[in-house]
Amino acid sequence: MARIRTIKPEFWSSEQVMNCEPLARLLFIGLWNFADDLGHIPKSLRTIKAQVFPGDAIEPAEIERLLAQLVQNALLVEYVAEGRAYLAVTGWKKHQKIDRPSARYPVPSTEPSTDLQRALAEPSLAEGKGEEGSLVETKGSETDAGARELRLIADLQAGIARAFAAANAPGVPDTSRAAMWISQGYEASIILAVVTELLQRKPSISSLNYFDPAIREAHASRTPRRIEVGPEPPKDWDKQVQRFKRGLPWTTRIWGPEPGLGGCQVPREILERYGYITPKKPENAG
């Protein structure tokens, strides 16, 4: 059953939200109405399409792409419970105040991460007092082990999505396996290094299961390679548009629609600089 949810004013100026294209932002808000009181919702592409975009000609593959963008920006976390894929909204308890929350869907069943389950499931988790505009619970991520693990998984999933996009892979697969790797004690920085390196050799990888042996092997090594896991760095729009002008590919999963298309996220001054739009005339110009 759909629920009434709250949108705070700082939502619109959040860096995480602004990194997503407008349709992904609308999908994110729509998910809140159909998630349970703990911010969980089944990852069923056709159902989500019917719930959020009932009157629009949007294919399930487009829903998958938009969800991947939300995961990439750490707004959603994917996980598997009882053999089914689910999505969890990060920072849910900070931004949605529910008097008597009830769980309709299971929390992660990837053993034995009870801290992660607690971070996702407890309605009494303290509200964060972090930086304005952050959609992830900053106080919890600093003081509560479960919340830190949840944030780590979100950042790892976002890093994996960026690695697939940077390798020009055909698509970003389900990244819920990241929660299982963390629950098994694997280091996020080693996982991301393994994923990045193998994708550079074989961009066609279509499932995270492929990385299991290499991740185990890397953790057995005395000097494993690491790539630090964290929030997405600021986008260098100028450099990316320069590359595009030289004929290099434009990766929509990272940069949104390319220059000249609707929904383009490139700052106006850069579009003007490279001739994609006409500069505005000064107000006092005759």
Can you give keywords for this protein?
globular, three-stranded antiparallel beta sheet, 14 helices
Structure description:
With 286 residues, this protein is mainly alpha-helical. The protein folds into two domains: 202 residues, no CATH class; 37 residues, no CATH class. Helix content is 44%, strand content 5%. The chain has 14 helices and three strands. The protein has a three-stranded antiparallel β-sheet. Strand 2 and strand 3 form a beta hairpin. Helix 6 crosses helix 8 and helix 8 packs parallel to helix 10. About 12% of the residues have low confidence.
Brief sketch in words of this structure:
The protein is mainly alpha-helical and 286 residues long.
Provide the fold topology.
Blueprint: H1 15-18, H2 22-34, E1 40-42, H3 45-52, H4 60-72, E2 76-81, E3 84-89, H5 92-95, H6 114-121, H7 138-143, H8 145-166, H9 177-183, H10 188-201, H11 212-220, H12 237-245, H13 252-255, H14 268-273
Antiparallel strand pairs: 1-3, 2-3
